[in-house]
């Protein structure tokens, strides 16, 4: 993806697709049901519900204010990076009509969250942004050393909270559900669906363990020298990379050789290079 998006035209194409997905999620799913799930578009939905102001106009005003903040308090590179998305998104929101294509509110939020997450994740993968409330978390990080993820969650939570006064408590609950589901889907889109497990094994039966794992060539296998923290003794530790569906079978084979083997398994969201079939 990184090499592919280095070309300006291809990168621009991906950005347009990402923004189009975000607009579809807002105009077809969130806005028709009055659910403001954070961000500048969430503020725009609240303003439309309360005062009838068009989504595109409010989003543009919020994005311009955020661009000014970025220009004054952050750096020029950040401002330029979010400039195009900050202006294109409200324009696309204004052009695309709002249509309630799903009557069920919960279903609309679920579908809208998935589409929104895919759009935002594509932007992240090409290092682009639709601007808006991504700026305040950067300011929080710079001046108060608050992690951007926490800052963004706080900003979105505040926007979601105002659903109570504009659209009711149900809209607030749905908005919280939406940002949670969006975060979950984004995590899978950004890191890929082909997930693996990295399994670390320490056992006195190291030779038998290596022989058993050698017989399953679909697994990656690495032997690492280690030193016990308490005992100070040198030993070997195996690192096995397995597909998600093979994890439990691999652990069972390890336990057949040594029921007391030390096993540590961690999520490997991306595996690049090396020898792994």
Number of helices: 11
Mean pLDDT: 87
Major sheet details: 4 strands, antiparallel
The N- to C-terminal Cα distance equals: 21 Å
Gyration radius over CA: 24 Å
How much helix is in the residues?
A: 55-70%
Total number of strands: 4
Strand order of the largest sheet: 2-3-1-4
- The SSE order reads HHHHHHHHHEHEEHE
Could you list the spans in which at least 5 consecutive residues all have pLDDT below 50? Answer: none
Total separate domains: 2
Structural class: alpha+beta
Strand proportion, as a percent range, falls in 5-15%
Q: Could you say which overall geometry the principal axes of the C-alpha atoms support?
A: elongated
Would you write up a description of this structure?
This protein is of the alpha+beta class and 277 residues long. 60% of the residues lie in helices and 12% in strands. It has two domains: 4-191, no CATH class; 196-268, Alpha-Beta Plaits. The chain has helices spanning 8-30, 39-51, 55-73, 76-95, 105-125, 135-144, 148-161, 163-166, 169-191, 206-214, 247-257; strands at 196-202, 220-227, 234-243, 262-268. Helix 2 (39-51) crosses helix 3 (55-73) and helix 5 (105-125) runs parallel beside helix 9. The mean pLDDT is 87. Its main location: membrane.
